[in-house]
Amino acid sequence: MLYLDNSATTPTHQEVVDAMLPYWTDVFGNPSSKYYSQAVDAKIAVNQARQSVAELVNVKADEVIFTSGATESNNFLLKGIAAAHSSRGNQIISSVAEHPSVLETLRYLETQGFDVIYLSVDLYGRIDLKDLERALLKKPTVLVTLLWGNNELGSLNPIKEASELANQYGSFFHTDATQVIGKVNVDLEKLPYVQFLSASAHKFYGPKGIGAAIVRKDDMGLSLKVTPLLHGGAQENGYRSGTHAVPLIVGMGKAAEIAYSRLGEHIKQLVKLEDRLSKLLMKQFGDVIHFNNDKQNKIPGILSVQFKGLNNEVLCKELAPVMAVSTGSACSSSKPSHVLQEIGCSMEQLRSTIRFSLSPYQSETDLDIFLDL
Ligand SMILES: Cc1ncc(COP(=O)(O)O)c(C=O)c1O
């Protein structure tokens, strides 16, 4: 069975599983405890993992806050920035094509008195910088939050330019980078105005239930203020209370190490696989398919394809014995895709769309399965 739903989640890499193993049994201490080896060694491991995650996105280790995943990171950052910095303005700017963990958090913030502008997107799900500037001109904005790479179409937003614009108008900038990590070069040293970022380990061959929120320091070297979501023992410098999930954190660190060291090779393989899959689909189904995704400026390895006249749910079910594919985002699989609606697809078009998401650990010959379909 060929697994082509890597944007929903990825299998945990064997080296990651191996790295985690001792932390369930031998090194089981609470890293906040002191003196004895189980605790001290657990703390060392957490700090090593923090260093690896920091390296992956090129920030300092103390700018990494471990969370339970990108949903929590998005909730924590959006609510926490809004609460801590509302004096900057009560407007928040985002886009209509965000992940539900951003959209639903923004809807909550609307009930708390924030005005949210949802920028529309083009045919491929990207915002227009002119729209962003127009929105920033309207009134003081506390935060601009934009998806780096779209989970259904793969399209990349102009993060550098958008973060510079936000800074020009005195607004903070956050990006949900969940889908791009491990597939695109994420170098925050080169993006000084991206102050906040969300990430999740299970999208880059790490375990589920662990992620990170990046909170950068200001020009004075002080950590930016974010009101915590979880109050308690003040772990993670008070940003995120709760006993550290040491095995999962170690797993995320190992996954980050692998993603960092193989980034170039993985990107090359994903580009190659995407090209081969596009060609195979054209060859087998050329007259009945349409690609929703752009061919360029995208996350490699994600294809969104309409199979005209077919129902995507039926197609996914029929294909299930031979391949795992999805109708779009796993987080909203029961609802028609809001992303495809926003790029102008009709109900019929979105009900016939399948998302294929590839893995750099697959080979071109794995895709030969399409020749038999
Ligand atoms: C863009 C994006 N943001 C956030 C999430 C949520 O991540 P997690 O499963 O870690 O909560 C996902 C998961 O599909 C995603 O694709």
Automatic annotation (TrEMBL):
Main EC class the enzyme belongs to: transferase
Domain of life: Bacteria
E.C. no: 2.8.1.7
Keyword NAD: no
Pfam families reported in the protein's UniProt record: Aminotran_5
Cofactors demanded by this protein: pyridoxal 5'-phosphate
InterPro entries with a match to the protein in the record: Aminotrans_V_dom, Cysteine_dSase, PyrdxlP-dep_Trfase, PyrdxlP-dep_Trfase_major, PyrdxlP-dep_Trfase_small
Residues of the Aminotransferase class V domain: 3-370
Catalytic activity: (sulfur carrier)-H + L-cysteine = (sulfur carrier)-SH + L-alanine
Keyword Metal-binding tagged: yes
Keywords: Iron, Iron-sulfur, Metal-binding, Pyridoxal phosphate, Transferase
GO molecular function: cysteine desulfurase activity; iron-sulfur cluster binding; metal ion binding
Similarity-based family: Belongs to the class-V pyridoxal-phosphate-dependent aminotransferase family. NifS/IscS subfamily.
PANTHER family recorded: CYSTEINE DESULFURASE, CYSTEINE DESULFURYLASE FAMILY MEMBER
Protein name, entry field: Cysteine desulfurase IscS
